[in-house]
């Protein structure tokens, strides 16, 4: 389904029952070894300024752990990346909604998926970038997931209306633009 602006509207899933998903943590030294031995695809997905980079917030933070994004001002948290022109993500809030925008590199399958847990407390954005290696147990998210895909898990604010969230993907040659809008529960108007 296309929106009026030519963006693809993504389905936001709530029924993901994958056992062991994101159970293998991505440690700082493991990530540094992985990225230093990786090629252009790995650097495009996990490099400086990417939503999926463990160093996006100025210090190491495993992207498979939920992060309280909207508790921080983007201008403050991303100041050094923005001053270097390396920032590919932004977030904000209005009286009506929380908004996340991010460039996502076009590599591999690039099948971006958005999930919200059944309690509406955590949103995760994930996709598989490397389809050359098959995961041993059949689900790339249950093992060394960073070798196959990417994830960013975000804690949602208590007034976020996760059930009415919308996600859109616009494609360019090198990057896709992901935009997620999460209405606030007490807002009187929809987007």
Automatic annotation (TrEMBL):
<dbReference type="Pfam" id="PF00011">
    <property type="entry name" value="HSP20"/>
</dbReference>
<dbReference type="InterPro" id="IPR002068">
    <property type="entry name" value="A-crystallin/Hsp20_dom"/>
</dbReference>
<protein>
    <recommendedName>
        <fullName>SHSP domain-containing protein</fullName>
    </recommendedName>
</protein>
<comment type="similarity">
    <text>Belongs to the small heat shock protein (HSP20) family.</text>
</comment>
<feature type="domain" description="SHSP">
    <location>
        <begin position="80"/>
        <end position="191"/>
    </location>
</feature>
<dbReference type="InterPro" id="IPR008978">
    <property type="entry name" value="HSP20-like_chaperone"/>
</dbReference>
């Amino acid at each position: 389904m296309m929106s009026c602006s030519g963006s693809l509207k993504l389905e936001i899933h709530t029924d993901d029952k994958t056992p062991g998903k994101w159970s293998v943590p991505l440690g700082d030294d493991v990530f540094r070894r992985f990225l230093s031995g990786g090629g252009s695809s790995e650097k495009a997905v996990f490099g400086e300024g990417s939503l999926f980079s463990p160093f996006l917030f100025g210090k190491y933070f495993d992207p498979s752990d939920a992060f309280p994004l909207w508790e921080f001002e983007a201008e403050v948290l991303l100041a050094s990346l923005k001053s270097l022109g390396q920032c590919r993500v932004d977030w904000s809030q209005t009286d009506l909604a929380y908004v996340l925008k991010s460039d996502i590199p076009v590599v591999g399958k690039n099948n971006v998926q958005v999930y919200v847990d059944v309690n509406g407390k955590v949103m995760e954005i994930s996709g598989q970038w490397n389809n050359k290696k098959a995961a041993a147990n059949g689900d790339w998210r249950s093992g060394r997931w960073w070798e196959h895909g990417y994830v960013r898990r975000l804690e949602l604010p208590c007034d976020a209306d996760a059930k009415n969230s919308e996600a859109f993907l616009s494609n360019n040659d090198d990057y896709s633009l992901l935009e997620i809008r999460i209405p606030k529960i007490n807002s009187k108007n929809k987007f």
